[in-house]
Amino acid sequence: MGLPPREQIPFLKRLVRSLLVPMRYNTVFLEFAGGMELDRRPEINRAWIEANEKAERGEAPPLPHGSMVSGGRCLSKAEVRDLVEFMRELGLEVIPEVQSLSHVQYLTVAYPRIAEREPPRAPEAGTDAEKADELPPERYPHCYCPSLEESYEIVFDLIDEIVEVVRPERYVHMGHDEVYSIGVCERC
Predict the structure, then answer these.
(1) How many other C-beta atoms are found inside a 10 Å radius of the C-beta of residue 125?
(2) Which of 12, 97, 148, 169 could cross-link 31 (Cys pair, CB 3.0–4.6 Å)?
(3) H or E element in which residue 11 lies
(4) Model-level pTM?
(5) Which residue intervals of 25-167 are DSSP H helices?
(6) Where are the beta strands (DSSP E) in the chain?
(7) Is 135's pLDDT higher than 60?
(8) What is the mean pLDDT of the chain?
(9) Rounded to whole angstroms, how far apart are CA atoms 176 and 143?
(10) Radius of gyration over every alpha carbon of the chain, rounded to an integer in angstroms
C-alpha cells in the first residue's frame, strides 16, 4: 500500500489492527514515492506536491501513484516512524517500497535531466497527430537513464533517507518492475 494521506492515518491503523492482524498478515509493503518529507532531496517533495496539485486542478494529467501515496502530499518523518512502529508493535514486518528504475515519475518530474527518453523523431507518414494517443512516458517519463551517474546519486540518497526512518528488519523493495523504455536515450 502507499503511505496514507495524513487524515487517513487513524483509519489505516484501525484497518491494520482490526483486519490485517486478525487475518494473520505478517508483512506490509509501504510505497514512498515522493510522499515523505525529504531533507537530502526536498526538490522531490516540491515537484511531487506541485504535480499532484496541478492534476487536482485539471491542469495536467494525474501523476502515476500520485493520489495513492500520501494523498499526493508529504508525511513528516515523525508520522512515518509512528506508523511503522505501530505496525511493528502488532507483529508486522514493514518493508519500504522505493520505486527505482521504473515507476520513477516522482523523480523524473523533479529531475527531468535524468529521464530516459527517446530522442525526438519525425511523425510517421499518415499519422494523425491530433488523434494519436500520447504514451504515458511522454508526459511523465517512468524510467531514469541507467547510464547517468546522477540517477544513482539521487536514488541512493532517497533510499538512505527512507531506510534511516523505517529501519527495515531485512528488506527494501526496489520496484524494478515494468521497465518500458531503457537504453533509448541519447546517452545510452
Answers:
(1) 5
(2) 97
(3) helix 9-15
(4) 0.87
(5) 42-56, 77-89, 105-108, 136-139, 149-166
(6) 27-31, 93-97
(7) no
(8) 90
(9) 10
(10) 18
Cα of first residue to Cα of last residue in the chain, in angstroms, is 33
In this predicted structure, the answer to whether residue 125 has a pLDDT above a threshold of 70 is no
**Coil, strand, or helix at residue 71?**
helix
Q: What is the predicted pLDDT for the residue at 178?
A: 83
Helix (H) or strand (E) holding 14: helix 9-15
Residue from 97, 80, 77 nearest 37 by CA: 77
Strand, coil or helix: what is 31?
strand
Asked whether residue 68 carries a pLDDT value surpassing 90, the answer given is yes
The span from the CA of 178 to the CA of 40, in Å, is 27
Residue 81 CB contacts under 8 Å (≥ 6 apart), including other chains: 165, 166
Nearest Cα neighbor of 28 from 72, 73, 88 is 88
Helices (H) and strands (E) in the chain, counts: 6, 2
